[in-house]
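Course assignment 3, question 2. Fill in each field.
Student: A.L.
Task: Predict the tertiary structure for the chain below.
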Amino acid sequence: MAESENNKSKVQEFVKGLKAEFRKIVWPTQERLTREVIAVLCVSLVLGLLISFLDWIFQLGLTSVLS
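Answer field:
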């Protein structure tokens, strides 16, 4: 029985600590979040285009070598 109460106490302490940590979180503003999302989308687009271009170049090279 004492072990059960000890586990209950540990869970309560964990939840209490979790709530304290969540109060410390600094959430980004809407403006900053928007800027970061746009930056991620732009970088993803540029890298996708670069990979597609390199794939096309390698395909042309291999096609010319194998023909």
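Instructor remarks: The helical segments are 2-23, 30-66. Residues 2-66 form one domain.
Grade: pending
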